Amino acid sequence: MLLATIGMSPTGTVTRYTFGFPMMRGGLELVGVLIGIFAIPQVIDMVGGSRTKPEISRFKNRRGVNLRVIRELLAHPIGLLRSSAIGTAIGIVPGVGGPVATLVSYNEAVRWSKDKSKFGKGDIRGVVASEAAGNAVIGGALVPLVGLGIPGSGPTAVMMGAFLMLGLQPGPFLFQRDPTLVYSIGWSVIAAGVVTFLLALVAAKTFTRIAAVPISVLAPLIVFLCVVGAFATRSLMMDVTFTVGIGVAVYYLSKLGFHPAPIGLGVILGPIIEPAMLQSVAISRASSIVDVFLMRPVSAVLIVLTIGSAAWAVATARKDGRAEKTETHDDKG
Question: Taking the complete model, does pTM exceed 0.70, yes or no?
Answer without folding.
Answer: no
